[in-house]
Amino acid sequence: MTARFDGRHGRWVGASVPRREDPRLLTGRGRFVDDIQLPGMLHAAFVRSTVAHGKLAGIDLSATLAVDGVVAAYTAEDLGLGDIVALLDRPPEEFSPTAMPILAREKVRFTGEPVALVVARDPYSAEDGVEAAVVDYEPLGAVVSEESAFAEGAPLVHDEAPGNVLVDVSMFDTPGVDAAFEAARAGGGRVVEVVTKSGRQNALPLETRGVVASWDDRDDQLLVRMCTQVPHQVRTAMARSLRVPERTVRVTVPDMGGGFGQKCVVGREEIAVAAAAQRLNRPVKWIEDRREALTAGFLAREQRYRTLAAFDEDGRITALDVDVVCDMGAYSCYPFTAGIEPLMASAEMPSVYQVPEYRVRARAIASNKAPTAPYRGVSRPQYVMAIERVMERAARELGLDPVEIRRRNVITQFPYTGVNAITYDPGTYRESLELAEATIRDEGWYEIRDRATAEGRHIGIGYCCFSERTGYGSGAFAKRKMAVVPGFDISEIRMDTTGSVVVTSGTMNHGQSHETTLAQIVADRLGLHLDQVKLRQGDTERIAYGWGTFASRSVTIGGSAVSLAAGKLGELLCTIAAHLLETGSDNVRLDGEGGVVQVDDPTRRASFEEIADVAYLRSHLLPKDVEPTLTATASFDVPGDGTFSNATHAVVVEADPGTGQIRILRYACVEDCGVVIHPQVVDGQCRGGIAQGIAGALFEEVTYAGNGEPSAASFIDYLVPTATEIPDITVSHLETPCAFTENGAKGAGEGGTIGAPAAVLNAINDALRHTGVELDATPVHPQTVLAALDAGVHKEMSIPS
């Protein structure tokens, strides 16, 4: 029997059909957490630490409880909840496990850490109750930088983490590293060293975190409605913290206004609110305000790379030696741990290049800052920036064109197993690079740059060539030695008597159009109309288990599980239809019109409605070995090392030496994410990701004073680009179908963010190439450019003639 109607490009897959979410969301009929109103609902607010590091000498909530409207107030001791503990199965010298209490106990570790919970009849009374709380601190020295974390006698953020090191791994050290560097120094090659840094960022989803929790005595169940990318992980961690069976916690997710990775970890505030709802037997709501989101929410990025690279005289890289330090803030995030950034960087640092020898040491340090969570790209924007700056520096020192040195080093033969023990599936690494260069060259930007130089203007062209491992399977996560190993996804599909289907997925939509794209896959697999497919997500009661949405896994893993489930249902439909048509099961196929036809006589046909009528309403007509149901379940896990999308970004910028302003004149992206399910959605993913990458390259940064006070408490202090600062972006698609996924797709969610910082930084340096200035850190603010130019002038003036 044939249970697949179309191939990977079918009637729906590959078409930019109208997004099914749009009518609801664009007309204001979406339902987000803050839209939920329940009878008798109370409101929560948190008393937060005003110091970055200190002992809790005392918490007095008596005045809080006296505030009109306040119903209850809790400290850690009052709630008695279990801590959140994220673990790696690594030896003590590589990993220091630390616990994150739901509310701070004994001491606080960052400004904004929740110390107490206030519950009131309205949000205003709750805030008044917070203001009335009295907390005494015994301040301790704050760790706010790599230097202060490693300083002799530095205060410890956690006693369990000596030297403030949470993770210290040396995953690779191949035998020929030292010899390669010696050969480069002795021969006609070069050894280049680049130190790159990236600033701390906030993911800034449009919708901040929020939760509405209520206890149902009749069902003996805590219903938690919240915006999270990982509802099943929240359920697991929450049940453990509350010390209740998992069946008593149900997590549901309504519409969600973005996540970008910030919501794919388990937060402590939601657990505290759930505990209060259980104790009070009343619904309790908490909505994070923007100040909390900027200062106390999960942050990201802050990393430093010292990269040494050896090249031979032909410009081919012969060795990499890398030291990575990631500032993870005060706590490990659950379930990924503080290892998520350094382990990602260590494993994938060689990027798209053929590196024969590789050594890396990567550390995660604790600091008195808000903790770090994954943010779109997870270390890849940083290690890509490091290796791309290396390529630029080597090209300059060897007298090569920046594109040519990449061309000589990029992977061209697939499958390719790298020095990092990762096997890369086929991609268009060189093709994307050459198409991006051709785009810039054909549009005349090289001539424009040269004319501008003659006129005293500063225009530069920058490239970034990279790959993105997408849809990490359990094998990839297991290599990190995580105690909790994400990977697979499960889907169930159910057909009703009208021939329509409801399909579930353990992924979680927060702006990626799952309702449309996953339905396209199902519709093609069964030969249904798109309107006959309904997607259900975000309910731990209805979906057996799922790992949610992160790491570009929704279409690769979730979409493959959905496709397999639809295929199984198709086989069942064919089995029943063959019986009804009185023919063999090998003599029928899905016909693409919502039914099954006989291969040797296409006029003999059984519609899905007829099959469903028998399956449910006249089950006595079913074959003896077929149960009266039209449901199927399937799981999918990416085999081996997974699959890799790839892209090249090309950027043209102009730098104003008088003001330091950087203006992007042209942005072109050539990407390959395998089979494109919905071109318009993929283009949107690329452009949105690039906008966030530009934000990290030029604008956004959270800094801290020496006492650990964060600089950015509002959008006055945290600079976010608007549409005016984001250029028009052209996206061109190459297509290398993935052999590992059911639909031929690779991931597309993070590539834009990964490539933009390096491409923009390279373009800035090209624009400033005649000034002697070279920048290796982001974000590049106007004052950064001016200070560098000023320093360059003073340096030239100090050189004796």
TrEMBL record:
Which is one GO molecular function term here? oxidoreductase activity
Could you say which cofactors this protein requires?
Mo-molybdopterin cytosine dinucleotide
Task: Give a yes or no for keyword rRNA-binding in this entry.
Answer: no
- State the InterPro entries in the record: Ald_Oxase/Xan_DH_a/b, Ald_Oxase/Xan_DH_a/b_sf, Ald_Oxase/xanthine_DH-like, AldOxase/xan_DH_MoCoBD1, AldOxase/xan_DH_MoCoBD2, AldOxase/xan_DH_Mopterin-bd_sf
Keyword hit for Oxidoreductase = yes
Pfam families from the UniProt entry: Ald_Xan_dh_C, MoCoBD_1, MoCoBD_2
SUPFAM superfamilies for the chain? CO dehydrogenase molybdoprotein N-domain-like, Molybdenum cofactor-binding domain
**What Gene3D superfamilies does UniProt report for this protein, alphabetically?**
Aldehyde oxidase/xanthine dehydrogenase, a/b hammerhead, Aldehyde oxidase/xanthine dehydrogenase, molybdopterin binding domain
Which keywords belong to this entry? Molybdenum, Oxidoreductase
Per UniProt, residues of the Aldehyde oxidase/xanthine dehydrogenase a/b hammerhead domain are 27-141
**Protein name as it appears in the record:** Aldehyde oxidase
Q: Which organism is it from?
A: Amycolatopsis decaplanina DSM 44594
